[in-house]
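Researcher: Re-running this chain for the archive, since the previous output was lost when a drive failed. Same request as before.
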Amino acid sequence: MRTLALSLFVFVMTTFCTLTYAAEKVVMCHKDKNTIEVSINAINAHFSHGDVTGECGGGDEDEDDPETLDIDGDGYTLGDGDCNDSDANVNPGADENTDDGIDNDCDGLIDEDDTETLDSDADGFTPEDGDCNDSDESVNPDAEEIIGDGIDNDCDDLIDEDDTDTLDSDADGFTPFQGDCDDADASVNPDAEENTDDGIDNNCNGEIDETSDDEELDGLRHIVDDLLDRLDIIEARLFTVDTDEDGFSPEELDCNDSDNAVFPGADEIDGDGIDSNCDGEDDNT
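Model: Regenerated structure tokens:
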């Protein structure tokens, strides 16, 4: 009786050990010739060397294909898009962890929910790199500034900064377009007081070291003269601006710079009563 009990115990323990061992091992075909058993933790390394699951020369076709094997048990195989089948936290259905440096959801992007580190417009710069508009690939720290588009193309916090007429370089509140005659000197601008002995046109009125000729000393004449001087400066600058963007400014004989269909060389339109080509008459009337 004691012998029978001992035999039964040995049988049970042998079966238990065999099942436990089998659960921790995977049968693989090594180099297309040797059937081996490997630890499940080492299976990816064997896959990388071209080994397949199953016995050499036979076995289930799906078991031989790593694309159909869900090693980490997360419900996704390599064929389903699991980009790391040894980590159950990484698969196409996982949430992206935005600060672990891992592509958790297998979409080819790392930490993409962190907009500061995501290059949305694929221009080579993220917001963290200084891209000030990551939805426009033409805007980034390496871009060329485009004058006249009203956009900070190169992300230096300045708009159209290469256009010196619209840039207030000395931060005195006036640009050259507004009549600043020396935009490198903040003490020189249309609002500055004239210093009568420094040899500089401090108030940008076209005169140097002028003294007041306001006999009544009420300042009115000086104010009027100053306003007229400013208007002359602005008018002169406007004369060189191509407002309607037809390629001609008033200085270039555009006779209607608010209509881009009117400029020197434009085609005349019969009977419209407009001098389209700015030659002084409506040629076809």
